[in-house]
Amino acid sequence: MNDPNPPSYPKLPRNTVQRYKARGTYDYQTIHKIINTTPLLHVSFNTPSPDDPFPAILPMIGFMGSFTNPSASLSEPLDLYLHGYISSRLMRLSDLGTKNKKGEEENEEEEQGLPLTISATHLDGLVLALTPNAHSYNYRSAILHGYATPVLNNEEKLWAMERLTNSVIPDRWKQTRVPPTKAEMMSTQILRVRVVDASAKVRAGEPHDDRKDMGDEEVRRRVWTGVVPTWVQYGEPKGAGGNLVDGVPEYIAEFVRRGNEGGRRDAEEAMRKH
């Protein structure tokens, strides 16, 4: 049975879903699952230059997790970890954005960091209706707001690097040349984002046509309606020019099989939901 009151992020004006409110959700499980199953996240941040009014946005790899509680489930509070190069603009700004701010009531110093907005989206289908205005997508999307600070503890940094690598293909970390060299550790930066609020929005099912259009038999006989299921399709792995391993390792082949089967299953399930 689904929990009627699952652990959730606070519902604030900033993260409240305004259009099609019934599609919005704020629970940890839904949001964290979307983040951890999306290959690329998009990270937006403001630049400090007065001559540049536009916020920057970058595609990045990341995951939700807890270093202090590694066994925490997706339904518990988690941090977002992001991977980047030490000298990139975002990483340099995160150093500048870390500041001490005194609490107004308890007079304690609280670490803030660089404000970020992070988005993730799965496209599950093209929804084709009788009229252009009723066309849509089946999708699962999430938006997070939080403060980013650099991970300075080497143990936490290695933990995050392993999790990030395994988020690409499970068990990949231990199948590579590890641990990273000192130069690799120095050139890599990990950001920990303390999430302050988030929301998800999910659309599933068939087209929702107006009653008037559904009553027009001539239009319904002329215009095809339905859903084109959509998912990430992994192709056949090809070895690199310098590869000396015979055949494709089973853990990679299994990832491709399961990824393709799971993506198709999710897209087809989304078509049947209402």
Automatic annotation (TrEMBL):
Pfam families given in the database record: Pyridox_ox_2 (PF12900)
InterPro entries according to UniProt: Pyridox_Oxase-rel (IPR024747), Split_barrel_FMN-bd (IPR012349)
Source organism per UniProt: Hymenoscyphus albidus
Top-rank taxon, per record: Eukaryota
Protein name: Flavin-nucleotide-binding protein
